[in-house]
């Protein structure tokens, strides 16, 4: 049984789903997509990337030097796409259940829930 | 463009892991007018960022430090900082400790075998040697005749972590076990406790040391484990056989001979298996 995906993992895979990217762009992408709520630390990012590489969900896609700085690019694998799809379906199902009950509650209490 | 200048692209693939920032920028001609003081400043700043990764194991640093420092520098520049933030420093310290002692990593098979033998010897030692409920003597701990039970428990847990793929935790526990068993050995000899003897300390610490620092050569792996296993065999088989002889009870003696033969056969099997593993490495 697949376990719940941790938030840094979710955002790393989500950013990489748009294409190969390097560490700094992954941090910026996660911050942007989460409306500034997720501020990945570099240590957290690399711990996640090392683990995801070990699990075969992402892979290193080359090193490049830009302005004298090494940029390591990563890309999502097919296994990573499958894992992210599974997580998205799980989140959607949870959200649907919660929304159904909230809508029923708003009908009883008159609370305006969109 | 001056004569002799090379017009390098701003982005290019490299085989080397890292280029010093100041040097490569000068190479690109971007910062040609940068003063030496600025270059020196950049170098010191880069060194400061590299220092933040000292918590990580050397293998991790070799693999990732150039890329990680580049991200830290990009972040610092975006925030207008010249030094890493306190949050990043703390996160890297914690990340390094986690990577060094907790992160999942498989131990070499020889090290796992050493941990298994150490755990087996620990159980044997506590059941047949150190178990002495009711004995009142200096150094006794609960029903055990000496406190090396603490080290033995660490070795058993170390095996569990190693099997679960937590090699670093297994090595940490083994290292702690070595410290405990050596300290208990010294106290035992100083205050005349009921063990452990120096040979017992050598077996516990030897196997654990092997797990913490596994030999790189298969030949050394084989001979180290073979020597420690022989020591275990001598310390377990000989007293059992001797007790049977003293008791002079044919039935007990026969049972003990069978048991001893079983232990020796098991040891031979392990050594043979290790030779196979050693050749395969």
Automatic annotation (TrEMBL), chain A:
<dbReference type="InterPro" id="IPR052509">
    <property type="entry name" value="Metal_resp_DNA-bind_regulator"/>
</dbReference>
<dbReference type="InterPro" id="IPR036390">
    <property type="entry name" value="WH_DNA-bd_sf"/>
</dbReference>
<feature type="domain" description="Transcription regulator PadR N-terminal">
    <location>
        <begin position="12"/>
        <end position="84"/>
    </location>
</feature>
<protein>
    <submittedName>
        <fullName>PadR family transcriptional regulator PadR</fullName>
    </submittedName>
</protein>
<dbReference type="Pfam" id="PF03551">
    <property type="entry name" value="PadR"/>
</dbReference>
<dbReference type="InterPro" id="IPR005149">
    <property type="entry name" value="Tscrpt_reg_PadR_N"/>
</dbReference>
<dbReference type="InterPro" id="IPR036388">
    <property type="entry name" value="WH-like_DNA-bd_sf"/>
</dbReference>
TrEMBL record, chain B:
<keyword id="KW-1133">Transmembrane helix</keyword>
<feature type="transmembrane region" description="Helical">
    <location>
        <begin position="197"/>
        <end position="215"/>
    </location>
</feature>
<feature type="transmembrane region" description="Helical">
    <location>
        <begin position="222"/>
        <end position="245"/>
    </location>
</feature>
<keyword id="KW-0472">Membrane</keyword>
<feature type="transmembrane region" description="Helical">
    <location>
        <begin position="110"/>
        <end position="132"/>
    </location>
</feature>
<feature type="transmembrane region" description="Helical">
    <location>
        <begin position="144"/>
        <end position="165"/>
    </location>
</feature>
<feature type="transmembrane region" description="Helical">
    <location>
        <begin position="172"/>
        <end position="191"/>
    </location>
</feature>
<feature type="transmembrane region" description="Helical">
    <location>
        <begin position="251"/>
        <end position="271"/>
    </location>
</feature>
<keyword id="KW-0812">Transmembrane</keyword>
<protein>
    <submittedName>
        <fullName>Uncharacterized protein</fullName>
    </submittedName>
</protein>
